[in-house]
Design a protein that fits this description.
The protein is built from 21 helices and 10 strands. The longest helix has 21 residues. It is an alpha/beta fold. Helices cover 44% and strands 11% of the residues. The radius of gyration is 25 Å and the shape is globular.
Length: 595
Amino acid sequence: MKASTLVAALILFASPARSQNCSFDTITPSQNLTWCPCEGQFLCAKLDVPLSYLDPSLGRASVPLLKLPASPTSELGPYRGMILINPGGPGGSGITLARTAGALLQSAIGSNYDIVGFDPRGVGLSSPLPDCAPSALAPRDAPRLADDFYQSYIDFGYSLGKNCSTSAAAAHMSSATTARDMLSVVAAFSSSPDGARAALDPSLLNYYGISYGTFLGQTFASMFPRRVGRVALDAVVSPEGFRANATYPNINHLDGALAAFFVYCHAAGPEKCAYHTGSTPRDIFTRWNESFAHLDAARAESRNWDNATAVASALLTFKVAMLAAAVDPLTQFPAIANTLLQLEARVANSSSSSSSLSAWTAAVNDEIGDPSAAGWVNADQVLGVLCSDQRNRLYGYRIDDFRPLIAQLQGQSVIGETWIKTTLGCAGWGIQSDDVFEGPYGGDTEHPVLFVSNTFDPTTPIENAVANAPKFKNARRLTIEALGHGGSATSNQCAFATVQRYFQDKLCGREHYCPLEAGPWGVLLNGTIQENLEAAGLASLRSLDFCDVEQESTSIKVTAKACCQASEAKRLNNQTIVPSYPSFQRCFESLVTRG
């Protein structure tokens, strides 16, 4: 069937729609779901809702929706209704997720469902927006000191909070408010022609949420347990952890996901992995470690290196790029291999020039986005949700107040401190929401909820699903032996099939497991990821020696490298996982003193 014919056929099965194409900027919000054809294969609508459900006199808001209609001839059976989707964040756009991945989600969940993306309150195309992150907020230079990175985000948060204090939207962006919007969407669907023909109870929410979307899903299910239909929560966030500080303990397995890069690169071989070296995964780690050692921003500042500012910028970009690779390893492990090669070339000599490092940093930032506070896009939409849900508990914090949390994150991962940057902004957000759900989380839901987790998710550990699934009556759990942030990042066919069985009411039992499938570079490892990390001696990056590099003379640099190699030899001879860092430091300092 031609695309135009298919769209026309699908429109026949939609709610009453306008005959002409529309766009979100031309749609008048309605209290009914009035769909109109837009953006090719999609249908668009805007739902009119109260700005505040607790005080309707404050005015109105609108929720934008983008629908990929169900197939009228689905092989899976009759039309079952709509599934709302959320990509995470906070601040993520469901409209964008539906636009870019709606077809993929529909193929995984079932073509007998509409896939409907919506923008949460105060986000994306919703109205009103906070719209208070103007370019007038002066960007800061890249941090020279470690503290400057944290302070830049704190300062940005204070500026943003002040600027947003008069916004009509800012006090109405909590997840509880968005959960009420979701209930309004479900109610409108239930009274629509689509709801009337759905095989399932149209008054129940069907939902697929990723990352922050799982917090939103748990919020809805806890507030309205008897309105829960088929709800899948992928990459599970701890509600209590999110409301406390949104960072700790989310990165339990971040170092494991990083270490898996060395394992997969080794298994892929030099033909596929550009960063391959030596004969073991540990050799690749050592190569990576030597480049990492050149990016010691604190030492660069304290020793007055000429390239100290460039080193600080490069270190931040390096860590954020590694985090991006851990989140999406199927596509980003091959990319980070090339990125690391380019960094290695920049730091190969004893004194990397500022221009050389800066060029590398700029090129990588073009790919991953500017990780500094100056590059924070839509920060008002992020903080409006996050800080509201936390009841502004971090408002007024200074950098010293954050140090215990920073130390915890540094203790969890070699790149852990980058995970705090969003939370820092809440120090300046004093705008209080009128509607915050504070628990308890859990409930006797109308239909069992499905919790989905990867064994090595770098930012939403499997422990979150283990802890929170039992709070919801008869909840199911799907464990995927895989890397990456969420099941959607794995391309695990077993997982996709299991999720589809859940949404088609064919999933029996509470515990489900999908074994490891082909990963980055198409490599299928033997055994579990944990078994491979242990075999490679990379089960805990925090326990490994990280080489120091002094850039004041080539001879000292070479000696430091030799000291690292001697330390590694000691490890191998003693058959221990790693030698102690202090012993290496004493070795290095004695060589510098003699030199």
